Amino acid sequence: MQRFGIKKFAVKSCRSRDMEGRKEHNVYVMEPERTDGKPLLIFLAGMMGSGKSMLLNTDFFVENMQQRIERLSSKGKVGNSIYVFPDLMTKFGGCQYTNSDAADHYEDFIVKELVPYLKRKYGSEKVALLGKSSGGYGSMALAMKHPEVIDAAMDHSGDAYFEYCYMPSFPTARKNIAKFGSAEAWLSNFSKKLNKKNPDDLTTLNIVAMAAFYSSIKGKVELPFDLDTCEMRDDIWGMWLANDPVRMINKHYKALQGLDFLGIDVGIYDQFNLLEGSRILHKKLAGYNVKHWYDEFEDSHINVSYRYDISIPLVEKALSKRSR
Length: 324
Prior knowledge:
CATH class of the largest domain: Alpha Beta
CATH topology of the largest domain: Rossmann fold
CATH superfamily of the largest domain: Alpha/Beta hydrolase fold, catalytic domain
Pfam families: Esterase
Number of strands: 10
Protein name: Esterase
Radius of gyration: 19 Å
Order of helices and strands: EEEHHEHEHEHHHHEEHHEHEH
GO molecular function, one term: acyltransferase activity, transferring groups other than amino-acyl groups
Oligomer: single chain
Organism: mine drainage metagenome
């Protein structure tokens, strides 16, 4: 029996480069029967995913989030929250949840528009961010930068230590982009393809997306490598590293010390070398005396949404125990 109602509504962004005026973003919410004051658990999708696909995706072998939360609730493991799935898909194939002149100001949208709107609507005090891959990165990064807004964060296999998770893809991306002369020209050609699932194209799209969010200058996507030789452009690469959680923590560790809950987990066979990045981040968190939950599990980067079976109850329990 369904325990939650699913609602869809739109929240307008602060600004948008994709269309004139304020752009509307669809938000999907699983509401319990009584919502007043319950915590907000906001789920940030990974690259190539969206809030709608997280909540309602149909896969014979994998539960979507609606099914997962319903099952966990029926067993009494979760159910004391409002579950929020914002749709923040971009032309770059996903979102890193930071402000970008090439994409949009998604960081501002979440902390200045979405969270205040939901707090007013539901009377909530507590807010948690949860996500995997890019969504995990967004959860960690926003918790670091906005402790006045975020009370808890769960980072599943989030991007960290960019030398290992991005640089191995640079030669492939360079070869593909160089044929068109710029990231924008490559993206325009990619958008016209009937088959958008070619592995090399997806590798390239991921790097173009990261450049759009980490190193856009006056709306132009600046790549961190030379298109002819693949030699690193140190000034642009420095813009990327400024967004790397293992570097950000040196400035923002005090923000993380005040969270009600902080969690990180990663598969030991992660294809994007995020095991190493997660271990570095875990070690730095411990060095700064940031209390956190950390776990390594025997799996890869793909098809590990079952890890939410562990994290959602942990987050709900932490938020129910502590108040500001």
